Amino acid sequence: MKRKKRLIKTPHNPGSRRAKSSRAKAKAARRKGLTLMSSVEEAKLHSMRIADFYRPLKKPVTLRLDADVLAWFKKDGRRYQTRINAALRKVMEREMKQAGE
């Protein structure tokens, strides 16, 4: 008894019913001359900060904070160290901008 051949997805076989992968969609968009970035995404790109792209190396430190400051960061639960880092980065970026660096 012979088996039926399965339909395999290839560029030459448009009869495949499988969904296109994101890579295939991007390739098709490039062929059509379309860009993947809309004006909304471009506006978002201009409002991004260095921290949105750059992930610096994290260094372990010992830091002594006032108890009320630490309690304020911890009140929202886990990831309080990330929130402290974000607050410090915001102050650093503001001061760098003011200094003209």
Write up what this structure looks like.
- The protein folds into two domains: about 20-45, no CATH class; about 55-100.
- It starts with about 20 loop residues before the first helix and ends with a helix.
- The relative contact order is 0.06.
- It is mainly α and about 100 residues long.
- The model has no long low-confidence stretch (mean pLDDT about 75).
- It is built from five helices and no strands.
Number of strands: 0
Distance between the termini: 76 Å
Low-confidence stretches: none
Basic shape? elongated
Which short descriptors sum up this protein?
101 residues; mainly alpha; 50% helix; 0% strand
Write the layout of secondary structure elements.
Layout: H1 22-32, H2 39-46, H3 50-53, H4 67-74, H5 80-99
In brief:
The chain is an all-alpha fold and 101 residues long.
